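From the pipeline queue, job 12 of 40. The input is one protein chain; the requested action is below.

Action: predict structure.
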Amino acid sequence: MSLELPEYFFRVRDNGAFVFRVDSDNRQRRIEMDQIAVVNIRNGEVKPNGERTLDEHDMAAITEWMEERRATLAYREIDDILRTVDHLNQTAHWVQTKATEEQIDAILNPLLLSMHDLRQVLVRKRTDRIMREREANEPE
């Protein structure tokens, strides 16, 4: 574990983070965190805290964090979907091998409707993509 603290701390929240500058180089050797900005990851907005102005170093650190955060969230989104595929496979196995009639009745309608909705969305998206590709490849 590194004894050196990072220069910035990002307290993650919905759609972004609060940005703090970390300071432990004071007489009491206490860790002080001074909020310098609020970041909105969706629209890229960076609001300095209070009357503060952010320098190039602050903005570079914030921009780097935003890029890393977007990559992390994109990875997690796909990972969550792949986990859903695993859960569906496990559910099928559970229904086939262990589920009682009462358990099946409890999950049947919500699961079937969710699966039907997902299938409709997937088919529509695939069809739209195929149609766009055909239109793009048609000679004029």
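Job complete. Helices lie at 56-97, 101-137.
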